[in-house]
Amino acid sequence: MRIIAGDYRGQRLKAVPGMNTRPTADKIKGAIFNVLQEKTPGARVLDLFAGTGNLALEALSRGAKEAVLIEKSRTAQQIIRENIDHMGVEQARLIGMDAFAYLEQHREERFDLIFIDPPYHQGLVEKSLKLLADPCRLTYSGVIIAETAKDENLESYDPFEIKKTGEYGDTKIWYLQRME
């Protein structure tokens, strides 16, 4: 796993040992950032269920202004901290807590890009969307990028609507934006 483009291109990232964390593959990450090309520079990023920090660190490499990474696993937090330190990124803020607790406690924060990449088949994307919706944490031009198993379905969730999807092997990527 590595940073695939931008200022930190080629930097290797550590992964969390074992099978509990499933980092987004470079091929999928490349496809996501091709879609987000115009939205990433200067963006404020939220990475829920951050895992290794892979998505947030890629966004920072591509010019995002700031990234907030939320992860409750202490093992994953250690890996994220090592990845941040290895890259020398100062714009990354790691918060060690449950994603839902974070959303409940930080209701005033707004983001341009929100990554939701939780364990599959547990309804965690839907729960995240519900908390992100009230009050709305996405800026008007922002994008939510949710990763699910290919066989999972999402519905548009007011005030968000599904704008695009992509399938890559057993993974499905959902792009949601605020309804106009």
Characterize the structure shown:
This protein has 180 residues and is an alpha/beta fold. It has one domain: Rossmann fold. The chain has five helices and seven strands; from the N terminus they run H-E-H-E-H-E-H-E-H-E-E-E. A seven-stranded mixed β-sheet has the order 3-2-1-4-5-7-6, sandwiched between helices. 38% of the residues are buried. The mean pLDDT is 93.
User: What's the mean pLDDT score?
Assistant: 93
Largest sheet: 7 strands, mixed
CATH third-level topology: Rossmann fold
Radius of gyration: 15 Å
**CATH homologous superfamily - what is it?**
Vaccinia Virus protein VP39
CATH architecture: 3-Layer(aba) Sandwich
The total tally of domains equals 1
Keywords:
methyltransferase activity; transferase; globular; single chain; RNA_MeTrfase_RsmD; 180 residues; 7-stranded mixed beta sheet; alpha/beta; Rossmann fold; 5 helices
Q: Concise description?
A:
The protein contains five helices and seven strands, in the order H-E-H-E-H-E-H-E-H-E-E-E.
Question: Secondary structure elements and their pairing?
Answer:
Elements: H1 26-35, E1 44-48, H2 54-61, E2 66-70, H3 74-87, E3 92-95, H4 99-105, E4 111-116, H5 124-133, E5 138-149, E6 160-168, E7 171-178
Parallel strand pairs: 1-2, 1-4, 2-3, 4-5
Antiparallel strand pairs: 5-7, 6-7
Helix pairs in contact: 4-5
